[in-house]
Amino acid sequence: MYQLPEVVRQVSASAFCQCRDKIKYTAFQEIFHQLTDQFYCNYQHKRFHGYRVVAIDGSIYTVPKTKETVKEFGHNILSETGKWIKAQVSFATDVLNNICIDAIIGAYKENERVHAAQMLDNLGSDNLLLFDRGYYTFDLLRMVLLSENQCCFRLKKNACKAVMNFIKSDYQDIISVINIDGQDYKIRFTKLRLDTGEEEYLCSSLLDMNKFTPNIMKDIYKLRWGVEEQFKDMKHAISVENFVGKKVNSIKQEFFGNILTYNLAMMTCKPQIERLANSRTKKYKYAINKRALLGKIKQCYIMLFDKMGRAKETITELMVIVSKESAPIRRGRKFERSKTFKAKRKYCTAHVSVN
């Protein structure tokens, strides 16, 4: 029965799924966290005034609809056919090093602020945390301040009474005091005027106005866009929503496995590729083509671990190929944002699973 060589023997889909189901998704989650910890402990990484800049944000992922997934993520039908439901996902992203530090996938109706509070324990201290408008609450602000981290929240106009009073005032940048459950906390309110003429309001714990001027505060908050880019990379370059398994354990395996793949690419290849792309004097500085890198990593993922003796050679070849696809950075270009429409779900027939 088993006359074929070992390397070409195949197993049935049923046998594969049964074996795979014996591995808990927490194994992938633990490896993901351990890899991240090892990187920050053993390798140089970019910081901003001594802080690791971490943007926290949420997104919606689509997952297959089964009785098990409905129980886990809620009954939130996404498509007309009723084959897909929604799950709430949150990332904590090191925007200077393009690394996902922590991630949560949960029920669609779970609050993003609750996810952010859960991730604070895994982030440690000495971080500069960036939040969008929906995150500002007294409870989350207090939790961040007590965690020995710095923070910067973008504010809604009606976020609280102190914010509304600041907006009405003539002050552009002030240090104020907010009382939360009888305890006073010093915070800073800053008004920023965008190129469009619109005003933006920030609440931060960076109280040194000479060191962190309003222009620097504006640049700091712009860094938050890195987490949005990471969501885009995950959905379109990694194809994270093309789940192969339909069980909750399988979905979470693939979720954390894909993040692990992304981080491996950013940690091992991205810095070296950017050095290769900018090794010669050119008119523009060149940035890595992340989609090309992630596509190549997925193609040779199994080879990296199956043939460890050739891993260094494989990575070197990969970096040379991807460096030739780097794109020039042209500063000052602006484009009007086009109208967005709900796109139909696309199926990736050439999907390469990383698990």
TrEMBL record:
SUPFAM superfamilies from the UniProt entry: Ribonuclease H-like (SSF53098)
Signal peptide residue numbers: none
One GO term of the biological process aspect: DNA transposition
Residues in Transposase IS4-like domain copies: 50-264
Source taxon at top rank: Bacteria
Gene Ontology MF terms: DNA binding; transposase activity
NCBIfam families linked: transpos_IS4_1
Name of the protein described by the UniProt record: IS4 family transposase
Upper taxonomic lineage: Bacteria, Pseudomonadati, Bacteroidota, Bacteroidia, Marinilabiliales
